[in-house]
Every structure is written in C-alpha cells, then in structure tokens.
Design brief:
The strands form five sheets. Strands 13-12-14-15-23-22-21-18-19 form a nine-stranded mixed sheet, sandwiched between helices. The chain folds into two domains: 244 residues, Rossmann fold (3-Layer(aba) Sandwich), CATH 3.40.50; 260 residues, Class I glutamine amidotransferase (GATase) domain (Rossmann fold). It is built from 19 helices and 23 strands. It starts with a strand and ends with a helix. The longest helix is centred in the first third of the chain and has 17 residues. The chain has 545 residues and is of the alpha/beta class. α14 links the parallel β14 and β15. Helices cover 37% and strands 21% of the residues. It comes from Cannabis sativa. Pfam families: CTP_synth_N, GATase. This is CTP synthase. Its EC number is 6.3.4.2.
Length: 545
C-alpha cells in the first residue's frame, strides 16, 4: 500500500480536505485506485453530537457512520463509498486501547501513548487502507490520509508520531507527505510572505516528518505547488495537474511506470461548464444554522449538482427560519420584512434537517407559503416533519398539532413522535442511521418518476423522530399522500401533495449520495420545478429510461 499524507500548518481551514480530495482525483485520473482516511484529533468518538456551528455538517455514510464533512468531499470527488472506520478520532483510538486494557490484552504492561496508542493508530490505518471502497475487489493502490487540525496542536501529537513511525515501517517509496500551508499577501504592494510556512515546516521536521511537497494557499499565483483561489473547487485537481503535482507524487511513490497520463477530460468539462453558466435559479434555503454555510455543505453541493444538470447556476438565498416568525416582526421588523421578501422572490423553497425547536415556527410558515402559493418545496428530515405539522394545523384544523421533539405535553396532538427504538438517555449513535430501503407505494407520483420508476430507493437516514403512523389515514383523506414507506410499511419516508407543481418531503437525506455527474433525483426535481422544466423532463425521462 502506498500512502499520501496531507497535513496543514499556520492556520486551520486552509482547504486540506479539498486538497486531499483533489490529489485523490488526480491519482485516480492516472489509472490508480484510491481510498481515503480522515484523522480528526478531537476526543469525540465521532462527529454525531457536535454542533453544526462549531464543526459544520455531520456527514452520514451508508453504514451509519456520523463523520466529518471532509469524508463527504472524498465521496463526491472520488465517487467512492466510505465506512465509519475511514474517519479516525482520538476518541475511537483511546476507546479501542482502553477496551483492550480492560480485557487484559496488555496484562502486566503499563499502557502508554508510545507504543500502545501509536501502535493502535498505525494498525487502524493499515487495516482500513486495504478495505475496497470503489465497488471493486482487492485493496486500492494509494491511500490518501488527511490529518485534521494544524501541526503543533497538542491533540495531534500521537498521530504525528504514529505517522512518523508508519513512514519508516512502509519504506520511503511508499510514503509521500504533502504539507498545506498559508502564504499571506501583505500590504498594498502585494508582497508574499513565506515566514509562516517556514516556521510550520520547521515544526513538522522537529517532530520527525519532512514534507516531500509543499502546497501553498495564496490569493495569488506563486511557486512550489500553488493552490491559489479558484472560481470553484472543481478547478483544484486541474490546478494540481497543470503544475505536474501528479508526477512529483508518482515519482516519490515509485509509481511512474504503472501510472498513465491523467485523463481529466470529464472533470475539465464539468469545471468549465459551471464557469460559463449565465442563467440562475433562486433557491430559498430556510434553516436553523444559516450563519455557517458549512452546516449545510452537502445540501449546497447537491443543489449545485442539480443546477449544473439543468444548465443553471444556483443562487441560494439563506434565510434564518426565526426571521420569518412573528416575534421577529415585533423586535426587528426590517429583518422580518427582508426575510419574507427573499422568500417570496425565490423560485423554490428548501427546508433542510435540524434538531431542536429554534426556528420551527418560521419553517412552518415557509412550508405553508410554498404549499398555498404552489411554490416548489423540498423538505428534508425535519423539513418533512414540518410539512406534516403545517398541513395538520392548517388543513385539518389541529391547532395543537406538533412534534414530541418540540412539545411532549399531553395537551399537544403529536403528529410526529419519538421512535420506539430510540434512546432517551444517550445522544451519540442512537438515531436511525445509515442507508435504509424505502419502498415506493405507487408509480403515479413525482418521486417514482424522478427515480425512473424504481420500486425502491436506498438513501441515508439520520433521525430519532418520525411521522405518527396513527394519523396517516386522516392526512391522506384530505389530500396528503405518503408515497414512500419503509419495509415494515409503518414508517413514513416520502410525502407528496398532488395538484402541486412539486411539494415533496422525505425522511431521509438525499444530499449525502448526490455526485457531480449524478445529481440526487429529488434535488434535480426541485430545480427542474423551480425553473419550469419538470413536466417536460418527466415526460421524457419518467418512464424508466
């Protein structure tokens, strides 16, 4: 196995994830099979309980792993299906070592960071690296490892030591270290300053690792491997190719003899297509965490994939759900008015997933507006549950209709309930997670046609509340249709509103499986409906072709 390690220095947020993904794309374009590992040095076992404001979105894998959003980048860039073990955290490593200690595996030994923690890290990397993630048999040729955080952080020290040991154990021809650093441009003369990078490299070398390549982040072009700011991130693999990064990496890994020249024709076409788009579609994204766009990274990427398939540029209007509420009208009327104006100017509305009751009233108002004004609407997870609450309140007259998540008092009419198998005492890894099968109940619905008349869809889930099965009959009597259910037939997965251009709610998260060349069918449907092209598309493609 060959390893490419990507580390970062000077500051965090330099784009190590995009750099690592782009290196993977480049090596894959050279005919090599590539897998990825992300190391997060925090003590959390996984990203499942972390605030989106602090860490961005929680990306969900097929196997139910709740992982760092960079694994979403890897899956989208490399078109692979990763596992929870492809995300290593300090919490996971210490947990595995402590479990061994309790079993007596180290009997008589003093358990220490070196060698026990470092050995556990190396063993984890080497065992995960050989797991195929591209649907083919046998291990990949190259494993790209991204070390999260910044060199010098105290929590990453055991990983740096383990990776230093790994570089020696696998041999020089099997290990390539790329250090991503910042070259700031100071003053009106635009002088580039390399001193921060010099210090960062010195720190890395003092810890026993010497970079083979430097990838410098800068607003301007410069020397070494320069990853300057680009119009969209799909240009990064092309940028690396143009600077012959692949030759440097392949030479270091002794792979020049078996690699082919990089074939990035499809990637080039994709990047240039996006750059040349002129028409756009306005999408109102009504959410809780709009202050940090990384909170909805996969949603944004899925919208991008769908828009490009429709030859449109996404114009996302971020609306904080609480700004639509009556309380906001009293406290900050100009903010309230602006939010409503933005919503009414949008071609379509999307309410993504989230947890907690903040902003729920605003989401309900957005769902009501979209339903009553025939504006295309897609509700994901919480967004689906919101549409059920709104429909029950407005159409059925259930004024007390609510979710147990927001009001568990007996006076409420719970149209959304806590799932029986959920845990009331633990938050981490206790939801309904990962890929689950949804059976489509009829082919006479928009969702079925968008999925090319498939009898079922396999999509990823992350929820602990569900639509109350006891009220399905009443809702369907007055027009709401549940066109997708789980294999038991009791858990509602997809709802639609007939006689509406596009009003769809899904319990799963379709954004997690969207790919640049294969947009999520539901996101595609939303954009087609928002641009007035859905009916034509369904007539052409909705027959299983």
């Amino acid at each position: 196995m060959k390893y490419v390690l990507v580390t970062g220095g000077v500051v965090s947020g330099l784009g190590k994830g995009v750099t690592a993904s782009s290196i993977g794309v480049l090596l894959k374009a050279c005919g090599l099979r590539v897998t990825s590992i992300k190391i997060d040095p925090y003590l959390n076992t996984d990203a499942g309980t972390m605030s989106p404001f602090e860490h961005g979105e929680v990306f969900v894998l097929d196997d139910g792993g709740e992982v760092d959003l960079d694994l979403g980048n890897y899956e989208r860039f490399l078109d692979v299906t990763l596992t929870r073990d492809n995300n290593i955290t300090t919490g996971k490593i210490y947990k595995s070592v402590l479990e061994k200690e309790r079993r007596g595996d180290y009997l008589g030994k003093t358990v220490q960071v070196v060698p026990h923690i470092t050995d556990a890290i190396k063993d984890w990397i080497e065992s995960v690296a050989v797991i195929p993630v591209d649907g083919k048999e046998g291990p990949a040729d190259v494993c790209v490892i991204e070390l999260g955080g910044t060199v010098g952080d105290i929590e990453s020290m055991p990983f740096i030591e383990a990776l230093r040991q790994l570089s020696f154990s696998v041999g020089q021809d099997n290990f390539c270290l790329i250090h991503v650093s910042l070259i700031p441009v100071l003053g009106v003369v635009g002088e580039q300053k390399t001193k921060p990078t010099q210090h960062s490299v010195r720190e890395l070398r003092a810890l026993g690792l010497t970079p083979h390549l430097l990838a410098s982040r800068s607003s301007q072009a410069g020397n070494i491997l320069n990853i300057h700011d680009v119009p969209n991130i799909w240009h990064v693999p092309l940028l690396l190719r143009n600077q012959n990064a692949h030759n440097s990496i392949l030479r270091q890994l002794n792979l020049l003899s078996i690699a082919t020249p990089p074939d990035l024709r499809e990637w080039t076409k994709m990047a240039e297509t996006y750059d040349n788009l002129t028409d756009s579609v306005r999408i109102a994204l009504v959410g809780k965490y709009v202050g940090l766009t990384d909170s909805y990274l996969s949603v944004v990427k899925a919208l991008l994939h769908a828009c490009i398939a429709c030859s449109l540029k996404p114009s996302i209007d971020w609306i904080a759900a609480s700004d639509l509420e009556d309380d906001c009208a009293e406290m900050t009327p100009e903010v309230h008015a602006r939010a409503w104006e933005t919503l009414k100017n949008a071609a379509c509305v999307l309410v993504p997933g989230g947890f907690g009751d903040r902003g729920v009233k605003g989401m309900i108002l957005a769902a009501k507006y979209a339903r009553q004004n025939k504006v295309p609407y897609l509700g994901i997870c919480l967004g689906m549950q919101i549409s059920v609450i709104e429909f029950a309140r407005t159409v059925l007259g259930m004024e007390r209709a609510n979710s147990m998540e927001f009001d568990d008092s007996e006076s409420s009419r719970h149209v959304v309930i806590f799932m029986p198998e959920g845990s009331t005492t633990h938050k981490g890894n206790t939801m309904r997670l990962g890929s689950r099968r949804t059976l489509l109940q009829t082919r006479d619905c928009i969702t079925s046609k968008l999925y090319h008349n498939s009898d079922y869809v396999d999509e990823r889930h992350r929820h602990r509340y569900e639509v109350n099965p006891e009220i399905i009959g009443i809702l369907e009597e007055v027009g709401l249709k549940f066109v997708g259910k789980d294999e038991s037939g009791k858990r509602m997965e997809i709802l639609e509103l007939p006689n509406h251009p596009f009003y769809v709610g899904v319990q799963f998260h379709p954004e997690f499986k969207s790919r640049p060349a294969r947009p999520s069918p539901l996101f595609l449907g939303l954009i087609l409906a928002g641009s007035g092209k859905l009916e034509t598309y369904l007539n052409t493609h909705g027959n299983g072709s």
